[in-house]
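#onboarding

Welcome to the new folks! Below is a worked example of what a typical request in this channel looks like: someone posts a single protein sequence, and someone else replies with the predicted structure as tokens. Don't worry about understanding the tokens yet, we'll cover that in week two.

Example request:
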Amino acid sequence: MNCADCKFCMFIDEGYSNYTVENTVFECAREKHPDGTFDRFYGTDPRLEYANQCEAFEAGECIEMDVDHENLDDLTPEQLEVWKQAGN
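Example response:
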């Protein structure tokens, strides 16, 4: 299991625009990850295996948000609710 398999997982691009993405951060919408918000490097990040012991884990599609939030309209109603509850 991996945090990316959880409906409360959010990968949020940061930068000046979608053309200048500087990094992608991981954020748990439930704020349950012990490392908080952190840069996710491409490839495998062992910190995302926290899902194996997380009591808040719920299987579902994670949210992947671009810098300009152009894909906001692509979120499912359930994802949009998670996004809003996380304060976005």
